[in-house]
Amino acid sequence: MIDYFLKDFPDSEDLINWNEQQVNRHYREVNAHIHTPFSFSAFQSVPEIFERAKEEGVEVLGINDFYVADGYHQFYNNSLNYRIFPLFNIEFIGLLQEEQDKDIRVNDPNNPGRTYFCGKGLDYPFDLESPYDCMLSNLKYESQIQVKEMIEKASSILVNESPGLGLKYSEVKRLFAKELVRERHIARAIRSRKKTSR
Description:
2 domains
């Protein structure tokens, strides 16, 4: 069992009461929404995220990957090393068909019907009970089927421009993704392929 320091914290009501009694409150720099390479990230590694946060004076940092909690353990260990308080979150993307048909934008300004929603303040270690663990596994599996179809479509367009520009799911995953392949990995693969073909 992982020894998680928050297990010994007072409950939330006690912490709120304590905070209200403080005369000189110190408000901390917080970034509660960081994607890691376990889904898709601007950062190459989890330690790089913490190094940057430390440089910028961020004292509370939240992992917020799409569909996965695979990075939680590494995120937690880095939070201890860098003495930055960790938050454990997860993000999902959904499509509301009726809103899409009516051209209603929910919380994605460019895609009607598409909605992002986040689970915040999850437990660590993260452990889903049945049937939710199965539902999450199925969601990840289905997301990869969709990504494979996207890669096939992109590849068919690219090879018309040049036969050497074709893409394969296995190659995109090996070169650009840690676990799940996302749309942005495809974009990165295309950009990389275009650079090398010049």
